[in-house]
């Protein structure tokens, strides 16, 4: 008889886990509280405009390729990928800009204009990122740590130094560049994970290596096409997804998870339960209180964001590429203190603008443009006296002012607008503190020290997603699904 598995949540990690378990012979049911799959990796469509509401960067393509191959298919059969070049444009406060590109001649000419010798420094920096990438993926990110001595041992401890885990991202970058604009340009990427470059491990220099060497890609139709593809594959393998079916509790007894209690009153039994909801939410709302929720509440959390989706009439602005970053390089350190220490909006906010119609015109109507703007901000904190309507308005005005200086009058061209922030991340997506990226990734919250992907007491209850091992971001969440399935199949057996 086929073993039964329940997956709580149809986010990226939940869908990938469900598909892998089905491939291994499990009968899998996914319960999703919303009408559609995706979780924080969603899509918004209105009046011919299309927006990815979560991740917008398709990095580390080999991680996606491994998943699709395991499921018996190929990425190319489901997604039309386009490499984005230049990778993105970085706008500085003095009105200069830098296009980061894998075209080494173009990159050299730009970097040397900022700082003589910067091109050679950039190549050295990328080589460091390549080393970090190899060590981190092979020894720390791409494997499970079930026991403390698998992480803390004479072999691994020196590798933590080799992987840059003992110094900050910004400190590493500052060793290679003197110009504050270049220091910002090569360190802001840690914000992809909701981390301050002042505190993020230098390990995350692997992001710049991945961007420029492996490429930033975009699936035709948007990143949400990844969700649709994995959902379709999972269902073709026999996975049943029940939408608009919230789970109110994970049923436990005698040291095991028996199944799930649903909002409609049903209790569904299973041999294995995998929770893809945000891990602090699972411990705080779906499980009996054993003190773990309180322990998680004391951990470090990532930043949140104020997000604006704007549909604009008129020809897309040539001043914007597909990916654009506006950095407050003259107040760089102070801006991150405001986000992570004060839990608020910086006085001069940095922000990101995604304009995907530069790569895929179908993301907007003819003679129109679709912009998704993300402004990093502190996560919810009652002690910070956060006035969210005022912060929302100030962020919006700051972005409009910057874009107007580039010749883009958003206010006059505005045809559609939607926005959200930390409160919606918490209320709509069950993200604790409205932290858009889950638990932070400092040295005390990675590897064995990160919340484990199996419950310590209920030994058939597993976790997948951003706040468990190995961490946040599309590639790491897919790795999370692979690792948890490897553990399930080892500990619980497969269905064949």
Short description:
It contains 17 helices and 19 strands. The chain has helices at residues 12-23, 61-70, 104-114, 118-141, 148-151, 156-162, 169-176, 180-185, 206-214, 224-236, 279-286, 292-297, 332-340, 388-405, 410-413, 422-429, 474-492; strands at 4-8, 27-31, 43-46, 49-52, 81-83, 88-91, 97-100, 217-219, 240-242, 247-253, 256-262, 267-269, 272-275, 304-313, 323-326, 351-354, 368-377, 414-420, 461-463.
Specify the structural class: alpha/beta
Q: What's the mean pLDDT score? A: 95
Helical percentage: 25-40%
- Number of β-strand runs: 19
Shape category: globular
Radius of gyration: 22 Å
Largest sheet: 7 strands, mixed
Q: Beta-strand percentage?
A: 15-25%
Give the distance, in angstroms, between the N- and C-terminal Cα atoms: 9 Å
Provide the low-confidence segments as ranges. none
Strand order of the largest sheet: 7-6-15-16-17-14-18
User: What count of helical segments does DSSP give?
Assistant: 17
Task: Report on the architecture of this protein.
The protein has 496 residues and is an alpha/beta fold. 35% of the residues lie in helices and 19% in strands. It contains 17 helices and 19 strands. The strands form 5 sheets. It has a 7-stranded mixed beta sheet. A 5-stranded parallel beta sheet has the order 9-2-1-13-19, covered by helices on one side. β11 (256-262) and β12 (267-269) form a beta hairpin. It is globular. The model has no long low-confidence stretch (mean pLDDT 95).
């Amino acid at each position: 008889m086929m073993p039964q598995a329940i997956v709580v949540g149809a986010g990226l990690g939940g869908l990938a886990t469900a598909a892998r378990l089905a491939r291994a012979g499990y009968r899998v049911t996914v319960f999703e509280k919303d009408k559609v799959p995706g979780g924080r990796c969603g899509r918004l469509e209105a009046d011919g405009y299309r927006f990815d509401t979560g991740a917008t960067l398709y990095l580390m393509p080999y991680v996606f390729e491994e998943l699709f191959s395991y499921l018996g298919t190929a990425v190319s059969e489901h997604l039309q990928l386009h490499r984005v070049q230049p990778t993105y444009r970085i706008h500085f406060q003095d009105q200069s800009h830098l296009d980061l590109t894998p075209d080494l001649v173009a990159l050299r000419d730009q970097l040397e204009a900022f700082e003589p010798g910067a091109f050679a420094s950039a190549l050295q920096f990328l080589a460091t990122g390549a080393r970090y990438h190899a060590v981190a993926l092979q020894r720390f990110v791409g494997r499970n740590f079930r026991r403390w001595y698998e992480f803390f041992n004479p072999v691994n401890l020196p590798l933590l130094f080799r992987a840059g885990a003992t110094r900050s991202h910004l400190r590493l970058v500052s060793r290679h560049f003197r110009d504050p604009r270049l220091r910002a340009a090569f360190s802001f990427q840690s914000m992809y994970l909701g981390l301050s470059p002042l505190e993020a491990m230098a390990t995350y220099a692997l992001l710049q290596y991945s961007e420029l060497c492996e490429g930033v890609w975009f699936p035709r139709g948007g990143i949400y096409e990844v969700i649709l593809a994995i959902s379709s594959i999972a269902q073709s393998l026999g996975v049943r997804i029940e939408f608009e079916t919230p789970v109110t509790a994970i049923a436990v007894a005698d040291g095991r998870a028996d199944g799930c209690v649903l909002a409609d009153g049903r209790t569904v039994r299973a041999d294995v339960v995998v929770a893809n909801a945000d891990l602090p939410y699972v411990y705080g709302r779906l499980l009996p209180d054993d003190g773990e929720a309180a322990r998680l509440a004391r951990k470090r959390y990532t930043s949140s964001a104020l997000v604006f989706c704007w549909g604009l009439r008129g020809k897309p602005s040539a001043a914007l590429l597909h990916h654009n970053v506006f950095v407050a390089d003259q107040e760089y350190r102070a801006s991150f203190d405001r986000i992570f220490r004060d839990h608020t909006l910086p006085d001069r906010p940095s922000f990101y603008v995604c304009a995907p119609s530069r790569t895929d015109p179908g993301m907007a109507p003819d003679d129109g443009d679709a912009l998704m703007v993300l402004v990093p901000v502190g996560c919810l904190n009652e002690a910070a006296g956060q006035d969210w309507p005022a912060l929302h308005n100030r962020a919006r005005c700051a972005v409009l002012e910057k874009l107007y200086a580039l010749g883009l009058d958003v206010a006059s061209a505005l045809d559609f607008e939607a926005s959200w922030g930390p409160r919606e991340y918490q209320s709509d997506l069950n993200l604790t503190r409205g932290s858009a990226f889950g638990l932070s990734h400092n040295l005390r919250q990675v590897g064995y020290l990160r919340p484990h992907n199996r419950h310590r007491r209920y030994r058939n209850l597993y976790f997948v997603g951003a706040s468990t091992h190995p961490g946040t971001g599309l590639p790491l969440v897919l790795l999370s699904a692979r690792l948890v399935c490897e553990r399930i199949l080892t500990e619980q057996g497969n269905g064949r």
